[in-house]
Amino acid sequence: MDKIRALTVFRRIVELGSFQAAANDLKLSKAAVTKNMNELELALNTPLINRTTRKLFVTEAGLEYYREVCLALDTISNAEQTLSFNQQHIAGKLKIGAPLSLSIVLINELICEFSDHYPSVSIEVVMDDEQIDLISQGADVSIRGSSTLSDSSLRSRKLLGLKRVLCAAPEYLESSPPILSPTDIKSHKSLVYSLASTNKWRLSRGDESEDVEPVASNYIVNNSLALVQACKFGKGIALTPCIYVKSLLENGELIELLPDWSPEEHSLYAVYPSSRANSQLVRSFIDFLVDRLERI
Fold it and tell me: In what residue span(s) does the HTH lysR-type domain sit (predicted)?
């Protein structure tokens, strides 16, 4: 029995919830996954996973063993990466989760630049505007934009402040009531980003602060670039990161609304499992992002 492979198989079965999913993730046959699990349980003389035809259940001993296995495998991985780093040669596999829209506009370019600097690093990028589950996806680091990060066992590092702007197309504004204060937003069609953590828009001016609950138009979308495009086509007003609309504001295709009021700023974070905290590869990638984004 290849002990490291068997432990890796066991870990991914627990994290993904099925033998087939683990087989797909590890690019093994389901028979090979089953064989590794059977040999591991036989060597330990302890059942780790109880299986039925429809579902599997991790035993109490299996859960305890899983925690120790994760520590052991991560220690081995970090040790290998540290050795590579100390030899001035960063290598290995790096799986990154990132928002689709932000990746297209900014992040993917930086990932490609990182890849040029470290050609021995194999990179897989999962682009999805929904936040991925780092553990189940086996990701090393995820890029997330939010006003705050929820408490979790994950670690994070702030990369960039994301200023946002309220805007609309000139054609929309010509046929709509004027927007002179945050309360006027309620009388307008608002383009809603369906993955937002809240359905309220917070605007501030000096010591004043107002929370506005926008009235959704007949267009709701889960992608920021699609929302900006709808705004450009006059479908309603939008609250979006400035990075997506900077050029459109400069050339007049979109107009900034309530410029004296500041929307709540979001931030961009690099989030990673605590087990990757000592990974030289993950730290090098995050340091690289910080360095590049400071120049923006």
Answer: 1-59
Write the pLDDT tens digit of every residue in 91-124: 889 999 999 999 999 999 999 999 999 999 999 9
Torsion over CA: 140, 142, 143, 148 (sign): negative
| Cα→Cα distances 166→187, 232, 245, 257, 258, Å | 15, 13, 10, 5, 7
Distances (CA, A) of 216 to 77, 83, 174, 191, 224: 48, 54, 19, 6, 15
Tell me the pTM.
Answer: 0.68
| pLDDT (tens digit per residue) in 59-73 | 999 999 998 898 888
Confidence of residue 152 (pLDDT cuts 50, 70, 90): low
Among 163, 166, 133, residue whose Cα is nearest residue 145: 163
Residue 121 makes CB contacts below 8 A (sequence gap 6+) with 90, 91, 92, 93, 94, 114, 115, 281
CB-CB contact of 289 with 185 (8 Å): no
Query: What 3-state class would DSSP assign to 160?
Result: strand
Domains of the chain: 3-84 (1.10.10.10), 91-160+267-293 (3.40.190.10), 164-264 (3.40.190.290)
- The tokens 């997506």 sit on which residue? 244
Distance between CA atoms of residues 2 and 18, nearest Å: 21
Whole-number Å distance between alpha carbons of 44 and 88: 39
Secondary element (H or E) of residue 156? strand 154-162
Mean pLDDT value across the chain: 88
Of these ranges, 13-17, 149-153, 179-183, the one predicted with the greatest mean pLDDT is 179-183
Averaged pLDDT, 2-16: 90
